[in-house]
Amino acid sequence: MSEPPSAPRPPHGVLDLTAVREDYQATGLHRADLADDPLDQFRAWYADWEAVDPFDPAAVALATATPDGRPSVRFVLVRRVDHGFCFFTDTTSRKGEELAANPQAALCFGWIPLSRQVRAVGPVERLSDAEVDAYWEARPHGSRVSAVASAQSQPIADRAALETRRDEVAAAVGDGPVERPEGWGGYRLTPDEVEVWQGRADRLHDRFLYTRAGDGWAIQRLMP
Ligand SMILES: Cc1cc2nc3c(=O)[nH]c(=O)nc-3n(C[C@H](O)[C@H](O)[C@H](O)COP(=O)(O)O)c2cc1C
């Protein structure tokens, strides 16, 4: 039996994803369906997203940048949505240093199974000690111990050294309370720009951009 003809192979080491081609068949997003406030729109869409039962629904890509414009991006978990998006982290980390020097950030929720994306951009502020303490106390014991043991974003020799630090903290606190490190904190990104994106057939997607206008929001459709 002869071998079936094989597709031309890309050069060694190249991951060619050209043939990965999903069509986005959602029924679409109409201007009349949008909430006046993008955070209300977010909450409505978040309910749809939770219903998909993804792991982990709260994950979002957070982009920060140095004052001279070098960006960095990583996932965090959004823990509260009020008039902004709140997340928690080590404020002495790379993202914390960047936010201290340049308190602007962008979020991107990639809800691909729903053919949806939500982007938010705006200034970032530190959450109050009371807000951070409340969340810290809600974290499992092991997570609190690890946060004390880890100077986030700093190099460490190996895994064993990290686990030793963790074991030392665990032994020191025993079953007692784990004190929140000074540098562990939270931020709120209050958006002044939000874009909601709904994938459609043939890449003719629906996009709407909310921008602040006085006390409310202006909404424009963008080309895909
Ligand atoms: C799904 C997911 C959720 C994460 N959530 C958080 C979080 O809520 N807070 C946090 O500090 N790091 C979180 N991380 C780890 C960050 O992506 C990142 O590695 C860490 O915050 C250090 O980032 P930095 O060095 O840029 O400051 C998460 C990672 C993933 C993949």
Give a verbal description of the structure.
- By secondary structure, the chain is an alpha+beta fold.
- It has five helices and nine strands, in the order αβββαββαααββββ.
- Strand 2 and strand 3 form a beta hairpin.
- Helix content is 25%, strand content 31%.
- The chain has a domain at 31-138 and 183-222: Pnp Oxidase, Chain A (Roll), CATH 2.30.110.10.
- Flavin mononucleotide binds at residues 56, 59, 72, 74-77, 87-90, 93-95, 152-153.
- Residues 56, 59, 72, 74-77, 87-90, 93-95, 152-153 line the site of flavin mononucleotide.
**Residue share in β-strands:** 25-35%
CATH topology of one domain: Pnp Oxidase, Chain A
H/I helix tally? 5
**What would the average pLDDT be, to the nearest integer?**
94
- Provide the spatial order of strands within the biggest beta sheet: 1-2-3-6-5-4
Which CATH C-level class of one domain is it?
Mainly Beta
Order of helices and strands: HEEEHEEHHHEEEE
Structural class: alpha+beta
Shape: globular
* Largest sheet properties: 6 strands, antiparallel, barrel
Total strand count, please? 9
Rg over CA atoms: 22 Å
The low-confidence parts are none
Which cofactor or ligand species appear? Answer: flavin mononucleotide
Topology (elements, then pairings):
Blueprint: H1 38-51, E1 59-65, E2 71-81, E3 85-90, H2 94-101, E4 104-111, E5 116-126, H3 129-138, H4 141-149, H5 159-173, E6 184-189, E7 193-198, E8 206-213, E9 216-222
Antiparallel strand pairs: 1-2, 1-4, 2-3, 3-6, 4-5, 5-6, 5-7, 7-8, 8-9
Helix pairs in contact: 4-5
The structure holds flavin mononucleotide.
